[in-house]
Amino acid sequence: MANAAPVGEESLGYSGEYNGPSVSALRDRRIRILDSTLREGEQGAGVSFTTRQRLQVAWMLDYFGVDAIEISPVVSPSHFESCREMVRAGLSAQIVAHARALRQDIDVLLKCDAGYGAIYHSVSDIHLRYKLKVSFEEAVRRGVDAVEYAKSHGLRLRFTLEDASRTSPDRLIAYARAVEEAGADRISVPDTVGVMTPGGMYRLVRTVRESVSVPIDVHCHNDLGLSLANALAGLEAGADQVHVTVGGIGERSGITDLAQLSVALLVIYGVRLDVRTQMLRDLYDLVFGYLGFKPPPFMPLLGENAYKHKAGTHIAAVLRNPAAYEVVPPRLVGSRRKLVFGELLGKNGAAFFLRLMGLEPDEESARAFAEAMKRLQRGDLFELEMDERMERFFLESQRELSGGGERRVVTVTILHDVVRIEEKMLVESAARMGIDVKLVDTRNMVLDSHGSPGGIVDGVAFQRSVSYYRHLHVTAYLEYAGVTVVNGLQTVIVAGNKMLTTLALARSGVPTPRTLVAFSRDGALSAYESLGGKAVLKPVLGSWGRLVALLDSRAAAQAVLEDREEMGPIHQVYYLQEYVRRPPRDIRSFVVGDRVVAAIYRYQPPDDWRTNTARGGRAEPCPITKELEDISLRAAKAVGGGVLGVDAMETEEGLLVHEVNHNPEFRNSVRVTGIDIAGQMMEYVAGIAKR
Length: 691
Known about the structure:
It is built from 25 helices and 24 strands. It is of the alpha/beta class. The strands form 5 sheets. It has an 8-stranded parallel beta barrel, surrounded by 9 helices. A 5-stranded antiparallel beta sheet has the order 22-21-20-23-24, sandwiched between helices. A 4-stranded parallel beta sheet has the order 13-12-14-15, with helices on both faces. α14 packs across α15 and α17 crosses α25. The longest helix is centred in the N-terminal third of the chain and has 17 residues, at 136-152. The protein is flat and about 85 Å long.
């Protein structure tokens, strides 16, 4: 998942020669991102979340890849409950519970089961005199007492030197050393009222960095618009963790923006970050949707105007090469480019517009149209969002105007036998992405061994047929005829058969439950007994929880096996897995190509031990931990790769993969995670079509 320098050298030009010393200061360093949307953010006027909203935001932040999420459980019972839920949710991000440097506040952190705390105390003269009315010596005593109390109760702890930027160096150093000696694990250096210049922030952090040995955080306010520059300067000076919020929300003018900080580190500094920048748009839409207002239109990267191009010369340059005016491609942050048409339109933009309308302009007619738009003097008349189809159309139009190339449109054929909600979501995603979709019902297909699939399938085939046998045979026919199918035949064969799946996983070293396969009732009964008298019998093909039986006594095993003996031949392949002790849930992760795009917990209903959502199982968001990501990708690769659902169980020894689904449903997963799984799938299939 790690990203590094996600733009080309052409976009950066010679900027590296000027940025060199700054960039080299962070090269090969591990930079941590702490998101404080649920703490600092909620201190901003007009910002408030419900308990449920906080948990959803935390899930999304965790999936994005922040290292820590900060929340203050002492604010209200609602915040306390949110903090406790976040601690118990098993997120990959560290949950940092924030409070004052007071014993009673620390007791609250302990009650919400926090393992990491963050306490603060003012250190500047102005705060001590007018806010707290205590001496510096008393302030130090309070801070040391709070640290020692927290550490004596097993908390890992960050101490924030509030208003550090307005504190004399000698007092700042003295306080930092005192709390370090008391046991603080980290020290945060904030520019509490945003008065630092980047050079000043560098020297401030350097002063503390050279005085203590524990790691340093930076927390920069944006009162004068310098928070991002100061945060980066603090990192250059030796801090290794920076505080951010979604959209920079927070007290007064807020703090450093998550998107701007992470993209700047990736693009300018080339820092390796384990973040998913492409989901920034979804994350910001979620947070600002809860808040009921939009980010400022001119906010970098995710503001409404961030990727709008209006001036004629700019449009002309961007349409030839977007890097002319876009260092960061909009897709990197999940956004799209927009062109604004009006009185500033030039001939190149006019030519594109006329071709879009189905006309064939020459240079003279394009120039005349642009002049007509100027004469109207009506400002911006309309804007056009450049989805993938529009961008392809322009590039192909440019080639045609210059005398070369034919227009090529990406087409995907979705094969189905039932149009489920999932297939409708795929079609909607394709429309948004400018992908031409053809729907083909495999129930109506006739496969001719001496014919070809021409006229049946256009472009790449995305196989979504529910019937395994129909799915398998149509895929085989198309592949042998030279059509690219997702998923490929090898994946369908292996992932569609539980025995073959288990063998492939075992051969690849993926942890799985112990599995025995027998071919007679007596053999199956013997296998059941060798599994300790408790096992799960599954059909080797198909499922959705159907014909899956828990054998927990010899009598039950005999009865179920007798029933299977009366069924078709495929049911005489007796596939038995050991019963794995697990929480009342399992995990379904979605692998698309080489990425795990989403995951859910599937909780079993009260009256059933099975977790399938089709049988009443309850879906909840699941964090994509390093372990889950690793085992999911390994499992997907073992069966042949593509678009897959990987089912895993939690055990004391770690995760076990018990099934891989080659045709996963995802409607409930989209509902609870907010992830556009259909869009991720269509983007992957379209990428194959382009190749």
